[in-house]
UniProtKB/TrEMBL annotation:
This is ABC transporter permease. It is a multi-pass membrane protein. PROSITE patterns: ABC_TM1 (PS50928). Coiled coil: none annotated. It comes from the Bacteria. CDD domains: TM_PBP2 (cd06261). It is found in: Cell membrane. Keywords: Cell membrane, Membrane, Transmembrane, Transmembrane helix, Transport. Belongs to the binding-protein-dependent transport system permease family. SUPFAM superfamilies: MetI-like. It comes from Viridibacillus soli. The keyword Transferase does not apply. Residues 19-213 form the ABC transmembrane type-1 domain. The chain crosses the membrane at residues 23-45, 57-81, 93-114, 151-173, 193-213.
Length: 223
């Protein structure tokens, strides 16, 4: 039988545990990526050519670091960060440990999305703010963030969906969550029921996130 419903019901405790671990990984890494990625994206934008805080050196260094991290496949990044993970959380397995590599992967990804959202802002609005004597902080707070908020919400949505995919990969190396469940039962034990269930759960999660993100983005977009 391709899908055994009774077997699925008997596995529900494991499924719920894996679901909770996935949410924990995503919650921790998303919070860190927002706290660091948002200001990083703003800095990348305002220090670029033609902007009010242009700094070629700072922009070049930050841009290089962001591109460097983004160029490393996540599964390799996960293994490479084991020493750092061990130092920070005292372990290399489990959802909290996996959150370290997830955060490192998500920060530059979200930062570039923030920068891209701000590049869509009409330069005339920024120039007008400078002309009336607005400080850099005022421009960021009252012009850049409000004008780019719809794009930033879309960026958050894309980041969460990427984290869902990354968290599933983290399960391959003991990160826990839905990916770990799929590997341990679906792959190693040839359990088609669990494999199908995990795929369906991941699809549902992504669809809900995308729908909510699109709805929120449209609701706050005043253009």
């Amino acid at each position: 039988m391709l899908f055994d419903f009774e077997h699925f019901i008997s596995m529900l405790p494991d499924v719920w545990k894996a679901f909770g671990e996935t949410l924990l990984m995503i919650g921790i890494s998303l919070s860190i990526s927002l706290l660091i990625g948002l200001p990083l994206g703003i800095i990348l934008f305002v220090t670029s050519k033609g902007l009010f805080l242009r700094n070629r050196f700072l922009n070049g260094v930050l841009g290089f670091i962001v591109n460097l991290v983004r160029s490393i496949p996540y599964i390799i990044l996960l293994v490479a960060l084991f020493p750092l993970t061990k130092i920070l959380v005292g372990d290399t397995i489990g959802p909290v440990a996996a959150s370290v590599s997830l955060s490192v992967a998500a920060i530059p990804f979200f930062a570039r999305l923030v920068e891209t959202s701000m590049r869509e802002i009409d330069k005339g609005v920024i120039e007008a703010s400078i002309a009336v004597g607005a400080t850099p902080w005022m421009i960021v707070k009252d012009v850049l963030l409000p004008e780019a908020k719809s794009g930033i919400i879309q960026g958050v949505t894309m980041t969460i969906i990427s984290l869902v995919a990354y968290s599933a990969m983290a399960g391959i190396i003991g990160g826990g969550g839905i990916g770990d469940l799929a590997i341990r039962f679906g792959y190693y034990r040839y359990d088609n029921t669990i494999m199908i269930a995990t795929v369906v759960i991941l699809i549902i999660i992504v669809q809900i996130i995308q729908f909510a993100g699109d709805a929120l983005s449209k609701a706050i977009d005043k253009r």
